[in-house]
Amino acid sequence: MMRFIVTASAVITGGSAVYLYLFHQRLSSRIQHKSHSGKLSAPSPKPVEIESVPETIFTDQYFALYDHSSKSVSRDALPKNVPTDELFTKLVRRNMNAFTRFPQALMIRLISRAPDEQRSFKSSHISSLDFNQGDLVAGVYRVVARTKNKVEFEITMKNMEFINGRLALSFREAESEVVFSSETLMWRRSDETQAMPLEKPLLRWMHETAAWWLLDSGVKYLMEIES
């Protein structure tokens, strides 16, 4: 009986792994994406489109991981009576709400003790935000820059002060399309011996899958809003 349980668990686990692999591949075909691993000191122009990062990271003293994902949609496929910048705010609210139900967010919540940190996970809180500078979401994401078409979050990780990071969500209008983007950047000093979470292949794969799904499903969410 015990052997049967172990075998069945292995099959289920293996089946789940295959499903997640295929899911990742399907998302990859629907999302434009690029990544960078290493120093950001070259070339020009800067390989990172996030404005709030300090100039010091564009030197040989720092090691960085950068992911950029984007998805294009025809403007005609989006609600015509809602300005694009308002749709973008709705997208950020929806995606950050969805993120709070991810395993990564549940782990962050366990170490978020302060009242404002706990409140930052609540749907009612996130749904009320316009993501102005200083707003906190999911315990570790604080808005450090906000424009009409972009929100930049500083990522602060407790017990990992050697890590710095940014999450940026944005849109741009190109002819008859709107391009929604998600960027993640983490960096540490080159001489730091501890690895960042996204340096670990499994965690980076999980991050990619989550970021791509949020972008893909978020755009679909906007398309389904009634005009």
Sequence-ordered SSE layout with sheet pairings:
Elements: H1 2-30, E1 32-38, E2 62-74, H2 84-99, H3 103-110, H4 115-119, H5 123-127, E3 136-137, E4 141-147, E5 150-155, E6 164-174, E7 177-189, H6 201-223
Antiparallel strand pairs: 1-2, 2-7, 3-4, 4-5, 5-6, 6-7
Helix pairs in contact: 1-6, 2-6
Describe the protein's architecture and organization:
- It is built from 6 helices and 7 strands.
- Helix 1 packs across helix 6 (201-223) and helix 2 packs across helix 6 (201-223).
- It is α+β, with helices and mostly antiparallel strands and 227 residues long.
- The protein folds into 2 domains: 1-30; 34-223, Alpha-D-Glucose-1,6-Bisphosphate, Chain A, domain 4.
- The chain has a 7-stranded antiparallel β-sheet, with helices on one face.
- The chain has helices at 2-30, 84-99, 103-110, 115-119, 123-127, 201-223, and strands spanning 32-38, 62-74, 136-137, 141-147, 150-155, 164-174, 177-189.
- It is 38% helix and 26% strand.
Q: How large is the count of helical segments?
A: 6
Question: What would you call the shape?
Answer: globular
Through-space gap between termini: 57 Å
Number of strands: 7
List keywords for this structure.
2 domains; 38% helix; 227 residues; disordered N terminus; seven-stranded antiparallel β-sheet; 6 helices; alpha+beta; globular; Alpha-D-Glucose-1,6-Bisphosphate, Chain A, domain 4
Provide a short characterization of the protein structure.
The protein has 6 helices and 7 strands, in the order H-E-E-H-H-H-H-E-E-E-E-E-H. It is an alpha+beta fold.
